[in-house]
Amino acid sequence: MDPAPPSATPGPPTPASYSEVEASPEFGELRHSYRVFAFPVTVAFLAWYLLYVLLSSYAGGFMATKVVGHINVAFVFGLAQFLTTFLIAWIYARYANARLDPGAEALKARLENRTASVGLDPAAEVPGARLENDATLEDRS
Amino acid sequence: MTTGTINLAAEAAASEHRTLIITLFSVFVVITLGITVWAGRQTKDATDFYAGGRGFTGFQNGLAISGDYMSAASFLGIAGAIALVGYDGFLYSIGFLVAWLVALLLVAEPLRNSGRFTMADMLAYRLRQRPVRTAAGTSTIVVSIFYLLAQMVGAGALVSLLLGVTGEGPKRLIVALVGIVMVLYVTIGGMKGTTWVQIIKAVMLILGTLLITILVLNKFHWNPSTLLGAAAEKSGQGHKFLEPGLKYGIDSTSKINFISLGLALVLGTAGLPHILVRFYTVPSAKVARKSVNWAIGIIGGFYLMTIALGFGAAALVGAAKIKASDKSGNTAAPLLAEYVGGGPGTTGGAILLAVISAVAFATILAVVAGLTLASSASFAHDLWANVIRKGKVSEKNEVITAKIAAVAIGAVSIGLGMYATKLNAAALVALAFAVAASANLPTILYSLYWKKFTTSGATWSIYGGLVSSVALVIFSPVVSGAPDSLFTGSDFHWFPLGNPGIVSIPLGFLLGWLGTVLSKEEPDLEKYKELEVRSMTGAGAH
User: Which residues of chain B lie closer than 8 angstroms to A31, CB-CB?
Assistant: First the structure.
């Protein structure tokens, strides 16, 4: 179903196009790339944080072990929590820029411009569509 | 020299720094109100009012997020806690920081892509509007009021300590003034004005903290180990001061209480309404991600500096002097500033004390403005426009309602803040985090990532998490049955932990699941597909 004539300006996508995209292999791949990073990393940093909390509560002797001068294991672990947080944030930003954003942009372009670019080859429509997309985005902001 | 002249000199110095504090703070208020008026002139429609026109950059919003997040509780509270109980004070900041990864990896981008102005926008996308907006609006307002009260109580306490005024009258006057200025920021400047207030405050706070940190480290020849050693020695606790356990390691109850707090801190941030609405102030999910990354860098750096502040205060000022000024240690940072500026009675000391005190006031003011905006937006957009008026209301009417709600919320928090001075600010903040983690986070995660989630699941989870966390605190030693309880006359406590998270957070998740599998309601799978595609790609995003 395509209610708008081809000459119409790009409007909000219809629900039909959403479920089409949802079923597409490109979207499946995007969702997989996101989840395969975000879910295990979330489990990992929460486990690491809980380990730290539990060690602080129940392993006082171990945490009190001196490392250098007055700096003990508790400080090293605490600062390591800071370090892993910075590191995960940085790695995720890099991962998302490289692995998530291009796929998301392409799908977005396909959804927001489908009525305007009827009949075009989906691969060919992407660059032009992205430009229009950016324009509408700027209008909104 | 007689004692009389010493007292006179001290008195003169005190009034000198009082004048300085008031002058600096007034300058901050005047400048930010000027910016608010300028932002108000550019605020034309609902998107401007609720989301600052979605025109902020990642760096600007990162600063604003940090401004919203680094409350007086974390600035004065953490520095004070470290100064008094050593390592255990530092545990707070780790939970507060790691929590941002939940927001970064699971919440910020999908929320930005699928919502317009409030947390409930995203939930209402696939669930039934009215019940879910009512529930989310209620929990938003409850979390915000607890958080607001914490800041108000803190403001009152701070003023009496730093300005040397005693008695309830001046305290109430300050609470009222803070309330009035915050309502002015919100009603005149909307999100644009409030965001600039946060940015200015964040910059002031970072620079102020950085200056004190440099002065402290310089005194210890830039050797952190020397600083820690001096702090341990002066604390009288020896190496115990540098190890976990002084505060939370007393018995098995206090250990579980600490784990409970840790859970609420790490899971609460991504459910705090005033943080969630910040993601709407940028043009896209990609910029939302950038702003969270900036925030992680800024907030992390700030918490690292609070370590130097806290241990510096313990080493240089000393616990005895800090406790004499304020039992819970809230004045450790200002007292440290006075010390590194040259000590009491010196011009340098007076100037630094005044600067840090003014920064603390600015911090409180900015945080309460952010909270007022988030809660009044949720009232107007969720409860008024979409539940009471069923969407039949103009944008203009909605924004006017939000402004009226801001005045009402301001009045309520001024009223409560004036008379609730006995409440413990840290306990209130911990409660706000617990409610956010128990009531808001389960529903946010289920609606984004669980296909079969239903409206019943959402309402069970939100109300269940909200009621259980508040009820457990009411029946905990925070309210009755302990020497520092709210009510000392009677004892009706049966829940041993001051922090309810360890029970209420799993309960919130469990109820969301139970409500979904027990109800006969069919999940709207088509709508879920739409939400999934929108949240991942940004198609159709506002």
Answer: 532, 536
CA distance B122 to A7: 32
Number of domains in chain B: 1
Q: How far apart are CA B267 and CA A46, in angstroms?
A: 9
Please state the pTM of the whole predicted model. Answer: 0.90
> Residue B493 in contact with residue B481, Cβ under 8 Å?
yes
For A104, which of B87, B529, B538 is closest by C-beta distance? B538
Rama region for B457: left / alpha / beta (φ>0; ψ in -120 to 50; rest): alpha
Amino acid at B397: N
Q: Is residue B438 part of a domain?
A: no
Give dist(CA B379, CA B365) in Å, integer. 21
What pLDDT digit, counting tens, does each position of B86-107 carry? Answer: 999 888 899 999 999 999 999 9
Question: In this model, does residue B19 exceed pLDDT 50?
Answer: yes
Q: Percentage of chain B surpassing pLDDT 90?
A: 71
Comparing CB atoms, the residue among B225, B534, B536 nearest residue A70 is B225
DSSP type of residue B487: B
ipTM of the complex: 0.93
Which residues, listed in sequence order, are joined to residue A72 by a DSSP beta bridge?
A66
> What's the whole-number mean pLDDT along residues B456-478?
95
Token pair for A134: 């950016």
pLDDT of residue A35: 97
CA distance B530 to B232: 57
Q: What is the DSSP letter of B164?
A: -
Structure tokens at B45: 């429609």
What is the rounded distance in angstroms from the CA atom of residue B95 to the CA atom of residue B269?
10
Q: H/E element holding B351?
A: helix B347-378
Question: Letter for the amino acid at B534?
Answer: R
How many angstroms separate the CA of residue B268 from the nearest CA in chain A? Answer: 13
Shortest distance between the Cα of B539 and any Cα of chain A, in A, equals 5
| Probe site for chain B from A32, A82, A97 (most B CB atoms < 10 A) | A82
CATH number at B370 reads: 1.20.1740
Region of B284 (left: φ > 0; alpha: ψ -120 to 50; beta: rest) is beta
With CA atoms as reference, report the closest residue to B50 among B398, B535, B404, B441.
Answer: B398
CA torsion angle for B139, B158, B235, B74 (degrees, to 10)?
30
- Residue B269 pLDDT > 90: yes
Average pLDDT score over residue span B10-14: 58
Q: CB-hemisphere CA count at 13 Å for B515?
A: 22
- Whether residue B333 is contained in a domain is answered as yes
Mapping DSSP to helix (H, G, I), strand (E, B) and coil, where does residue B480 land?
strand
Dihedral angle computed from the Cα positions of residues B436, B299, B289 and B273, in that order, rounded to the nearest 10 degrees: 20
Task: Show the domain range for B113.
Answer: 16-424
Give the mean pLDDT of B240-259.
90
pLDDT over 50 (residue A134): no
